[in-house]
Amino acid sequence: MTKINTSLHSSRRKARKAHFSAPSGVRRTIMSAPLSKELRAEHNVRAVPIRKDDEVSIVRGSNKSRGGKVTSVYRLKYVIHIERVAREKSNGQSVPLGIHPSKVMITKLKMDKDRTDLLKRISEGRKAKAERKKAE
Do residues 74 and 116 touch, judged by C-beta distance below 8 A? Predict the structure, then answer.
């Protein structure tokens, strides 16, 4: 089997090293979450990097169908913390559960200028790709 993308390593060892030693900016894109069907139709974008104050619902795991606002994006551990999704410690203290962004779905975006520009840029790229495919 030949290599598909020559700029990336197909070695498992090197792929894992690149993943776990990735800088914060790269981790941001890795920590992207899919949009809900309504948001996907509205913005013509499939997934965006998650950020604090986005509203999400969990789609996998024991906390499935629970949701809330993202309270923190913990890039070092590749997890996000969601309000009201926590577990009790033995001493009664509440600790937020870390959930991977790929296991949640964004239901409401926190919009600002940069986020609007990002969505617009991705949407235009998808439209251009669709037109090129149609022309073939």
Answer: no
